[in-house]
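We were asked to recover a plausible sequence for a given structure. The inputs and outputs are reproduced exactly as logged, with field labels preserved.

PROBLEM: sequence recovery
POSITIONS: 225
GIVEN STRUCTURE:
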């Protein structure tokens, strides 16, 4: 479970302070499927970085499994990210010289046991519907297929939490639907907690709960299912 308490983030741009987050508080229970919605510049991606321990807030607290992780040393943050958090980026972030299989198992090698991770990567690619594309390179895959490879990669270390930052922003409608359906499948079948950011209101149909940000503050919090 994640608990966000009175979180604020201020960026200094020249002589101007910009408040990207302003006193945000909410809880992400285990097994949740949470949509973070809002217009561009509302603070969605900034919030996701805080939850994923990729950045530190200006003030406030982040608790993971009742342990405060807000300002632990970077080495410990890196360990927590590697073991417990999977991140799906908007731009896929695949290595072009590696096959789909290699892109998926590469992060697993950082924890050792290379053989087991290769097998696990095959299973994950099959899970996201790409078992027949295992030896293809990113340039040989559509945008939606590349994003599903990225989702499989995010699962290689069996994370408790998957964070997806605008996972459909660069995709056509059908590919975006397939990506969102894949995230729902992981949430329902593997019980992975999923938090995704989107500016498209229709994407909230895939979520159990929705938080809407406006000017760095929560303007709406709704149970959907």
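RECOVERED SEQUENCE:
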């Amino acid at each position: 479970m994640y608990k966000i308490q009175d979180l604020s983030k201020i960026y200094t741009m020249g002589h101007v302070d910009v408040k990207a987050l302003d006193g945000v508080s909410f809880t992400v229970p285990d097994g949740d499927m949470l949509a973070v919605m809002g217009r561009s510049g509302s603070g969605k991606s900034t919030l996701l970085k805080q939850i994923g321990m990729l950045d530190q807030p200006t003030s406030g607290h982040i608790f993971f499994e009742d342990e405060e992780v807000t300002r632990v040393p970077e080495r410990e943050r890196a360990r927590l990210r590697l073991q417990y958090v999977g991140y799906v980026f908007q731009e896929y972030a695949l290595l072009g010289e590696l096959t789909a299989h290699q892109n998926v198992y590469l992060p697993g090698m950082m924890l050792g046991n290379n053989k087991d991770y290769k097998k696990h990567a095959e299973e994950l690619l099959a899970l996201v519907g790409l078992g027949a594309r295992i030896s293809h390179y990113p340039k040989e895959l559509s945008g939606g297929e590349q994003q599903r490879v990225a989702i499989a990669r995010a699962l290689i270390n069996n994370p408790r939490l998957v964070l997806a930052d605008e996972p459909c922003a660069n995709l056509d409608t059908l590919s975006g639907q397939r990506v969102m359906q894949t995230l729902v499948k992981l949430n329902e079948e593997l019980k992975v907690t999923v938090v995704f950011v989107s500016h498209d209101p229709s994407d909230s149909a895939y979520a159990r709960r929705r938080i809407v940000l406006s000017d760095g503050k929560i303007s709406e919090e709704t149970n959907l299912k």
